[in-house]
Known about the structure:
Layout: E1 4-10, H1 24-36, E2 38-47, E3 57-61, E4 64-71, H2 73-92, H3 103-120, E5 129-133, H4 140-146, E6 152-156, H5 164-167, H6 173-181, E7 185-188, H7 191-203, E8 207-211, E9 214-217, E10 220-226, H8 233-243, H9 247-256, E11 260-265, H10 274-287, E12 295-300, H11 309-329, E13 337-340, H12 346-355, E14 358-361, H13 370-377, E15 386-390, E16 403-405, H14 410-421, H15 425-441, H16 444-456
Parallel strand pairs: 1-2, 1-5, 2-4, 5-6, 6-7, 7-10, 11-12, 11-14, 12-13, 14-15, 15-16
Antiparallel strand pairs: 3-4, 8-9, 9-10
Amino acid sequence: MSRLVIVSNRVPVPEKGGIVPAGGLAVALKAALEERGGIWMGWSGKSSGESEPEPLTVTQQGKIGYALTDLTDTDVEEYYHGFANRVLWPICHYRLDLAEYGRKEMAGYFRVNRFFAHRLAPLIQPDDVIWVHDYHMIPLAAELRQMGFKNKIGFFLHIPWPPADVLFTMPVHEEIMRGLSHYDLVGFQTDHDLENFAGCLRREGIGDEVGDGKFSSHGRTFGGGAYSIGIETAAFAEFAKRASSNIMVRKARQSVEGRDLIIGVDRLDYSKGLTQRIDAFERFILANPGQQGRVTYLQITPKSRSEVPEYESMQRMVAEQAGRVNGAIGTVDWVPIRYINRSIGRNVLAGLYRLGKVGLVTPLRDGMNLVAKEYVAAQDSEDPGVLVLSRFAGAARKLDGALLVNPYDVDATANAIARALSMPAEERRQRWQGMMTHLLEHDVSRWCDDFLADLAA
Ligand SMILES: O=P(O)(O)OC[C@H]1O[C@H](O[C@H]2O[C@H](CO)[C@@H](O)[C@H](O)[C@H]2O)[C@H](O)[C@@H](O)[C@@H]1O
Ligand SMILES: O=c1ccn([C@@H]2O[C@H](COP(=O)(O)OP(=O)(O)O)[C@@H](O)[C@H]2O)c(=O)[nH]1
């Protein structure tokens, strides 16, 4: 079996004692690396100021080498905050209005990818299989090919791929499309993303599907497929069962004082539809006065990418909105929305999901949304809660037991909350069972195995 080299912007380096950072992706990829031996390479998350970053540090843990590099301040600004998070992220989430093109940032993105390729090159052996993750690293294969590497290189995009009319607003869309053609396999979250990608190739006449899951473009033939990422379902379900006795979870249970709990968990990101969701909750209470004082909406929202202006302004906007709604509909003995801006550990999160009668997951656009899957996995099979899920999350393609909503339609979301809270136990169990069966069959290990098997083929 070939050695595996994984490249991603963020690298979940195990803490002292070998504890793997939270998250199914980290767990699954670490397992794949342990099986084959290999390297996980990426950004350390640190800056070297304006001086040239120190040579790559490789920390060996068993059969896995974690190879991290710092970036300069300029690199972080242009590559990460600039092009990745102010151009690619908004465009791929259909937010043309938020994309801020700048030649400097575009150049920085390609420069940092060349830098990553040069730092990675000395570590690569001829038989290694290389798996590159996400929108930060699209040009990496092209750089490696230019240096003469003939290895199998796969790419997985964790975020959505937009239709041609959206993508083509980006001045460098052709370079980005060309970048993908240098991989042997390009994986997307859903069939819709894959269709959009094929549409982009056809529209410009720069490529086409040639059958059998293959595309041809820019003189190369490569595979393309939909590989919906899963979670570590069985382990997470166990986790949730045990979490009921966690002190924080017990305190949370006591503090809701018998009220029904609605739970939302999202990075503070404009793609997550937080303002529409809070509006929908308010609309639900106004339309159902009998629910006043009987429900608590807990929204856990860790800050994210705060250096990017659009995220900074979101922080203010959402906090103000939650405060306004609490002021408008709260009473002396009832705070309707509990809005938390800190990250919560997954052991506690699992228990909170299980307490939630409704999981409210209403992004305006999302690659997959693992929270939706975690909420389902955490439920008590005898008395499961109801998932209210945006039809624009990748997770909605397969979780058909959820109440699917259009998050732009505030009234429809409000109605779905009401329906979820009054759903009979039998219907809840039936809906949950279908979703859980799917999640157990399509967990994150299967996602990883399926992608690597197709890449090897
Ligand atoms: O690294 P950050 O800039 O702090 O952002 C965190 C991660 O956000 C994105 O997650 C995506 O991947 C999930 C797993 O496949 C998927 O469920 C979700 O819909 C996506 O938004 C991003 O793609 C990651 O690279 C970031 O590390
Ligand atoms: O306070 C928090 C909030 C979120 N998460 C985790 O962050 C991930 C979020 O992934 P998702 O796909 O839903 O969205 P992303 O943030 O990647 O866009 C999930 O595994 C959550 O359990 C967490 O550990 N603590």
